[in-house]
Amino acid sequence: MSTEQKNNKDTEEVDLIVFFNYIGDALSRLFRFVGNILKYLFSSIIYIFKVLFKSWKIILSVLIIAIILGYFFDKNRTSTYQTSMLVEPYFDTKYQLVTNIEYFNALIASRNIETLKDIFDIEEDVVKQIVRFEIKPGPETENDRKLQYEDFLKLLDSTRAKEYSYEEFVENRSIYSGKLFNITAYTKKNNIFNKLEDGIVASFTNDFSRKSRQRRDTLLAIQKRNLIVQLKQIDSLQNIYIEVLKDESKKIKSNVDLGGISFSTDRQTTKEYDLFLEEQRIRDQLKAIEEQRIQENEYFDVISGFQKVGNKVSPWFRGYIYLFPILAFFFICIFFFVKQFIKFTLNYEK
Fold first, then answer.
1. Which spans are transmembrane here (predicted)?
2. 74, 315 in Cβ contact below 8 A?
3. What are the angstrom distances between the C-alpha of 75 and each of 145, 190, 191, 283, 314?
4. Smallest Cα–Cα separation from 315: which of 82, 69, 64, 72?
5. Of 300, 299, 292, which is closest to residue 87 (Cα–Cα)?
6. Per-residue confidence (pLDDT) for residue 61, from 0 to 100
7. What does the H/E/C string look like for the chain?
8. What percent of the chain has pLDDT over 70?
9. Is the pLDDT of residue 6 over 60?
């Protein structure tokens, strides 16, 4: 029995030794693999610097030539200018606005000068200076997004509203979600933007927006008439109540003293105050209707228009003075790589 236990113990020890040896071999192979990668990277970096140091005169000369060429190309190329306008569309004219901006860009790309002349009512030489238009959502605060989220939840049923998070709402927003829109015009001249603004402004309206405004005006007129009728009814009730109080005051004394004991017949608060509150509520609604009609009396509001003189567009990554040296260095690296690859291939059999 003891001999069998001893054999089992020896077997377990052998298994542990084999297991630890296996782990040790695996770690050794892993370390060698990582070491080879680091060694290869280090050798590659050293080789690159070696080539650069050996050919630094050629590389420096090519880069200087590329910088000079880039400078002259930048000096001679046509400058681009930009300015922006901020608008707030009403009656769902934002859909027509976005569609028209895309249409304008398509006309510019196809060089359809005549159509652009008719749309913007400008001369041909001005049309040729237009580069493109761009439309983006306007500025908005976190509170604006939260208010839009609350309005959106009101359109959903209670179950779906609980599942739809604020982060999901923000992530799924489109260009049409906001109230403000930023329109940017790019041109080759910096003093023609005022001529373009009228054409963009005229692109807001269509049959749908006109019908939407007519429906809105009709609904507001109906609401206003109903509120005025209610106001007249309340006024009539107030007049009747005042007459009743006058008649009662002539018949009933307010205080009666009997044997030194005072009995008051003052009435409790009546519905007169309730009528007054209802009158104020209706007047507030009439005021809100009138404010809405005045504030949204147009199809849009131009919050800030195009500047008379645009700003020059000069991003550094579009400058040839930066682009040419980068491309030159890239092609130099490709050249040396191909050269060494060909040399290695020709000497491989040797």
1. 30-49, 55-73, 320-342
2. no
3. 45, 17, 20, 66, 12
4. 82
5. 300
6. 87
7. CHHHHHHHHHHHHHHHHHHHHHHHHHHHHHHHHHHHHHHHHHHHHHHHHHHHHHCHHHHHHHHHHHHHHHHHHHHHCCCEEEEEEEEEECCCHHHHHHHHHHHHHHHHHCCCHHHHHHHHCCCHHHHCCEEEEEEEECCCCHHHHHHHHHHHHHCCCHHHHHHCCHHHHHHCCCCCCCCCEEEEEEECCCCCHHHHHHHHHCCCCCHHHHHHHHHHHHHHHHHHHHHHHHHHHHHHHHHHHHHHHHHHHHHCCCEEEECCEEEECCCCCCCHHHHHHHHHHHHHHHHHHHHHHHHCCCCEEEEECCCCCCEEECCHHHCHHHHHHHHHHHHHHHHHHHHHHHHHHHCCCC
8. 78
9. no
CB atoms within 10 A of CB 114: 10
Tokens at 59, concatenated: 């590389």
Q: What CA–CA distance (Å, rounded) separates 292 from 286?
A: 10
Alpha-carbon dihedral 208, 204, 99, 174, rounded to 10 degrees:
-90
Q: Which two tokens mark 36?
A: 């080879």
Determine the Cα–Cα distance for residues 161 and 152; give it in Å rounded to an integer: 9
Q: Rounded to whole angstroms, how far apart are CA atoms 184 and 133?
A: 6
Under the banding of pLDDT at 50, 70 and 90, the label for residue 261 is: very low
Q: Tell me, what's the pLDDT at 229?
A: 84
Q: Look at residue 33 and tell me whether its pLDDT is greater than 60.
A: yes
pLDDT score recorded for residue 224: 82
CA neighbor of 129 nearest in space, from 137, 120, 140, 138: 120
**Rounded Cα distance, 77 and 71, in Å:** 10
